[in-house]
Every structure is written in C-alpha cells, then in structure tokens.
Amino acid sequence: MFDYLIVGAGFAGCVLAERLASVENKKVLLLDKRNHIGGNAYDYFDEAGILIHKYGPHIFHTNSKEVFNYLSKFTEWRNYQHKVLASVDGQEVPIPINLTTINTLYGLNLSSADLEDFFASKAENIAQVKTSEDVVVKAVGRELYEKFFKGYTRKQWDLDPSELDASVTARVPTRTNKDDRYFTDTYQAMPLYGYTKMFEKMLNHPNIKIMLNTDYHEITNEISYQNMIFTGPVDEYFDYCYGKLPYRSLEFKFETLDQQRFQQTGTVNYPNDYAFTRITEFKYLTGQQHQKTSLVYEYPQAEGDPYYPIPRPENAALYKKYQALADQSKTYFVGRLATYKYYNMDQVVAQALATFKKIQSANSTQPVNNGTINNSY
Ligand code: FAD
Ligand code: UDP
C-alpha cells in the first residue's frame, strides 16, 4: 500500500516525491508514461557523448533563494548566464532588445539616455495593455515589434501577438543598457552534472518506487494507494469533459557537427526566416569540452506532446472550469500541465514546495506552517 501515487516524474513529481519520502516518511510510487525521469527537463549524452536536453534547451534561473537552496541539496552548480542573439536584417543582435541591438541595427551611437528618447519617439500610446502586441508596441514601437516579435510569435504559437496575453512577450522585456543576458534573475546556474543526475539524487530514497513506461490509467485499479498527486494535463485527468485545453507542441531536430563551435551564443533566434524559431548549441549551456558540437532546432507544431499552455482569455476561461473540478477533487494538481500555467522550472519547484506544505498541514492536527515557504531544508 502506497501513501502517495504521483503521476509524472518531472520537476513537480520529483520534488513532491522527495519531500514526502524524506520529510514525512511516506511511501511513494512515482510513475511516468515516458521511459525516463525528469519530465521535460530530462538530459542525456547523445551518440557523440555530448550532454543534450531531449525536450529543448532548459536554462535554470530564479529569484527565489528558497528554490535555489532546496535544489542545491541535490546538485552542485555551474554559473551560467544565458545569452541570445536574434538574426534580424542580416545581422545577429542581442535579444532582449538593448542599447547594442539598436546601435548595431541602425548604425547609431546612442547613449542609454538617448535610447530612452528614441524608444519614446517610436512607442505607441496604448492606454490599456492587454495583448502581447500591446506590450511591445507600447515599449518600442511598431517597427521593432515587427522585426523581433511578430514573426517569432506567429511561428511559435500560430497566433498573432494580438491574440495572446501580454504575459507572453512580457517575458522578454526591453532594456536601455548594454546588459545582454537573457535573464536578470539573482540565481542563474546549470546543474553541474546535468538535470537527470540531480533528479536521480532526489529520488534516491528507499521510500520511493519508480515505475516508468506506465500510463496511470493502466495501474490505478491494480495498485492500492491513499492519495494521488497528478502532474499531467488537467483536461486529460477529467476525460476532456469540457473539451480539450489547447497546448502548443514542438518538434526538436538534433544535429551533431564535426567542429568545436557553431554559433556565437547559446541560442540564436530566427524571428523572420525559416520554419524553426531558434537554434541552441548545448555546449554553451553545459560548459562541456568536446571536439564536436550538438545543436537543437525547434519547430513549432499544433500536434504532439503538450509543451506550452497557450495564455489567452478563452483558454483561461476553459481552464477555470477544470480548476473548479480540481478544487473539489481529493487529488492534488501540481505543475505546468496540471495547473495550465506557462511556468518556468523554478516556479514549478516553488509550487510543489507550497503544495507539500499544504499537505503537511492538512495531515497534521496541529498546523505546521503559515502558508509560506521557509528555508528549513
Ligand atoms: P513535466 O516536466 O511536463 O512533467 C510531467 C510528466 O508527467 C511528464 O514526464 C509526462 O510524461 C508525465 N505524464 C503526463 N501524463 C501522464 C500519464 N497519463 N501517465 C503517466 N505520466 C504522465 N523552464 C525554465 O525554467 N527554463 C528554461 O530554459 C525552459 N525551457 C523550456 C524549453 C521548452 C522547449 C519547454 C517545453 C519548456 C521549457 N521550460 C523551461 C519549462 C520547463 O520544462 C517546465 O517548467 C518544467 O519542466 C515543468 O515540470 P512539470 O513537472 O510541471 O511537467
Ligand atoms: N519572443 C519573440 N521573439 C524573440 C523571443 C521571444 O517574439 O526573439 C516572444 C515569443 O512569443 C515567445 C515569447 O516571447 O514565445 C517568450 O519567449 P521565451 O524565450 O521566454 O520562450 P520559451 O523559452 O518559453 O520558449
């Protein structure tokens, strides 16, 4: 008899399995329909011996000390600040748009103060920012919006930015300085030996049994358990009773080249050319030394594994109906697919830790927490 059946061995499932087993001494069955742990953050060595990410580039960044400290129990880190160039008008320039981007693109020599005036002269006056078009056009005007955001977004989502919530392009905010890092979070680092090694360490506990290649539908009647934590798609759990929640998928094409370096930064984005959105060269992310180099090209797709919830009002409304069912259910729903949120890894870890606290206090006659994540790992 298991205390917890956890469906899905990604970040959400692994954090909860680890916490329940090691802190609460619960017996956990962690299962995944894939043949590996780690969910979309899974990495492995390809045929050439280069560490690659099976489901596209995963760069860890967070402002949460709690999340960083928690994961640091299971891995050492390699400092890494991700940089991205966008291929626009025949040049490769920094994205997020910054001072270097504008000076390079237009052959100018502006200062940061000049650039503020430049953006102000281009920006459109939008009273209420609602969509992914509004955010960018209000900050930098229509021309830069069309060069950097319109084409990329249409490719990635098969939607015009005006049909997506503001939060999507707001992930890539404009700067007036020369900071050319993709993220500005306090903690930016990659697990020194990779994500999979970190997950293996998290799950290395006698109370945790792992079952791979198993859809939970196959075993729920065969195995006895007291509680379920579900980290797969929430609409699937409820048999699509309100219809399918839309997700965006990707096809990943990997390539290994017989040369040490291919491009100038970890990722190069192609907003306006080609069917793929971006190319990532893994050795930048991992710091691995190797005579060869491996790349991944991302081709957006309508069908396939559900990688991205699609943030727009009608989808939020549909999710709300599933959320109401989830709220009434005894099952806990955690993670990017189960809560239909465009979450980064650190946000999923924070959500899983918060769920653990909730479970702890529900299980205890004397509530043990005040609802906040503390630092006592
Ligand atoms: P998942 O990792 O999706 O895990 C859910 C698991 O549930 C899966 O393994 C699935 O097989 C399993 N499952 C589903 N249904 C069933 C079922 N019926 N039975 C059994 N098992 C089931 N985040 C960052 O912070 N930085 C990045 O750079 C970054 N890059 C990304 C790039 C791409 C291309 C994508 C798609 C995502 C990226 N993310 C990034 C987001 C990151 O992948 C997620 O935040 C995180 O992995 C979500 O963890 P999860 O546990 O919620 O879900
Ligand atoms: N985006 C864009 N141009 C870019 C980079 C991003 O238009 O060069 C938009 C696009 O809509 C994308 C979103 O901003 O889906 C978020 O970008 P991010 O790099 O965070 O996407 P992820 O890594 O989650 O795929």
Would you give an account of this structure?
Among the domains are: 2-37 and 203-244 and 310-363, Rossmann fold (3-Layer(aba) Sandwich); 84-170, no CATH class. It is built from 13 helices and 17 strands. It has helices at residues 11-22, 65-72, 99-106, 112-122, 132-140, 142-157, 166-169, 195-203, 216-219, 234-237, 282-286, 313-328, 345-363; strands spanning 2-7, 28-31, 43-45, 51-53, 61-62, 77-79, 84-88, 91-94, 187-191, 208-211, 225-230, 247-257, 267-269, 278-281, 293-301, 308-309, 332-333. A hairpin with an 8-residue loop joins strand 13 and strand 14 (278-281). Uridine-5'-diphosphate binds at residues 86, 95, 148-149, 152-153, 156, 168-169, 171-172, 269, 271.
List keywords for this structure.
single chain, 377 residues, alpha/beta, Rossmann fold, seven-stranded mixed β-sheet, five-stranded parallel β-sheet, 17 strands, 33% helix, disordered C terminus, binds flavin-adenine dinucleotide, binds uridine-5'-diphosphate
